[in-house]
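Researcher: Let's continue the batch. This sequence belongs to Anti-sigma factor antagonist, and it's 121 residues. Same format as the previous ones, please.
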Amino acid sequence: MTLTVDAELRGEWAVLRVAGELDLVTSPVVRQHVHDAVADGRRSVVLDLSQVQFCDSSGVGVLIAARRLMRSCAGRLRLILPAQGAEDGSHVNRVLAALGVRRLFDCYPDLASATAEPLPA
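Model: Same format as before. Here are the structure tokens for Anti-sigma factor antagonist:
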């Protein structure tokens, strides 16, 4: 399986919808999209990971690097990780929890809740 990333703007949020497998081969694509959003002046990014079926350590590394990048530019990163995915919950949610790093991220169940909260002034 491959990976796709679709970008859209929702108010002040750059939303990146990621679908497929997030692994050693595909994770640089996500990294580039996050960097592109920041280069375009976006300081609020939502990564919708609800359609990611597989995530390895490379994918987790990209998520942590994205968090670091957003914090370095006084930005915000939010992840969409539904508790119940296609059949048995979000794969990425389970991987991040198993590694003990889920607490590092602001996680939301859907796009509406991820983008509903106003940004700080």
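Researcher: Any comment?
Model: The beta strands are 3-10, 13-22, 44-55, 76-80, 106-108.
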